[in-house]
Amino acid sequence: MQTERLEANQDGLARAGALLASGALVAFPTETVYGLGANARDGRAVARIYEAKGRPSFNPLIVHVANLEAAREIGVFNEDAERLAAAFWPGALTLVLPLRPEAGLSPLVTAGLDSVALRLPGLGLARHLLEAAACPVAAPSANPSGRLSPTSAAHVLAGLDGNIDAVFDGGETPIGLESTIVGLSETPILLRPGGVALETIEACLGQTLARPGKEATTTPNAPGQLASHYAPRAPLRLNVVSALPGERLLGFGPAEAGQNPLLNLSPTADLREAAANLFTYLHRLDREGDAPIAVAPIPETGLGLAINDRLRRAAAPRG
Ligand code: TXA
Ligand code: MG
């Protein structure tokens, strides 16, 4: 299959929207990472996502919508959901809500669960595309399963060229790391840290979020949570103050005396900048060799929670 590269202009939008509506696989940018989209009501199209990614079929997918009305037709919004949507949508927050069976989603999207993950993306281009498609769009990150998430159209093509119908090229994604996922089917729970900081979500709800227990790293029910994920080829060592000979240092903050980081996620220790650079730099290190990667310590606050989560998965023993 030839993968079409579509430009971010009116023609490109119309073409990408028509392709999605007709059951094709189209990768597109959001403010977090590129998604691999398919019409969420078209079971054959959704099946092709799993196929193209080589993804275990028990992983449910996030459904992307163009506006809040479309989200309400798919999920049941309680008071907390309304409050979070009002505060953070459009944006890098995914809400897991009870599914409305009449929404007509393919059961493959939710992997048979009676809940659904919904997101109204913050990037205008993504919303225009969703409007053009005029259907809910299921989209996991547009990378082969278990590999790094893509933050540019070039990353998408490096992993999936020839296996998908098109990539809609909207340049680099501004946040560079996936959305935060909050489950609201029962007690509010943080299912995945991400682009919106946990602290701001808790402040909005006026309560702390529950956190998944240890079993979440092995059960298929919490898939983005599988321990080994987001992995470059080279082994990773975390919280490294002194790199060993032969290790490639990925720095954070002002370099310590004697340290010579090959790349620095943020020389000024800005967590937002570090998040935006994370996958781009891991991709670059992945392309440029397989010597072990040592990563400097990153504070466990704000977006640091999500950055460390992705790094721990990248460093986990490969399954
Ligand atoms: O930023 C993002 O969220 C990107 C862009 C493309 O929107 N998407 C993304 O999707 O990261 P994906 O498929 O890589 O991650 C989806 C996560 C998985 O960890 C999955 O377990 C969780 O969402 N999820 C989806 N539906 C769920 C449900 N009903 N219950 C619990 N978790 C769910
Ligand atoms: Mg992913």
Low-pLDDT regions: 215-224
Hetero groups in this structure are: threonylcarbamoyladenylate, magnesium ion
Number of helices: 9
Percentage of helical residues? 25-40%
Which strand order does the major sheet show?
Answer: 1-8-2-3-7-4-6-5-9-10
The topology string of helices and strands comes to EHEEHEHHEEHEHEEEHEEEHEH
Total beta strand runs = 14
Using only C-alpha atoms, the radius of gyration works out to 19 Å
Separation, N- and C-terminal Cα atoms: 30 Å
Strand coverage percent: 15-25%
Helix/strand structural class: alpha/beta
pLDDT averaged residue by residue: 91
For the biggest sheet, the summary is: 10 strands, mixed
The global form is: globular
Topology:
Blueprint: E1 4-7, H1 10-21, E2 26-29, E3 34-39, H2 43-53, E4 62-64, H3 68-72, H4 79-88, E5 93-98, E6 115-119, H5 124-133, E7 137-138, H6 153-160, E8 166-169, E9 180-183, E10 189-192, H7 198-205, E11 236-237, E12 248-251, E13 263-264, H8 271-288, E14 293-295, H9 304-315
Parallel strand pairs: 1-8, 2-8, 4-6, 5-9, 11-14, 12-13, 12-14
Antiparallel strand pairs: 2-3, 3-7, 4-7, 5-6, 9-10
The protein binds threonylcarbamoyladenylate (TXA) and magnesium ion (MG).
Provide structural commentary.
The chain contains nine helices and 14 strands. The chain has about 325 residues and is an alpha/beta fold. The chain has a ten-stranded mixed β-sheet, sandwiched between helices. Strands 11-14-12-13 form a four-stranded parallel β-sheet, with helices on one face. The structure holds threonylcarbamoyladenylate and magnesium ion.
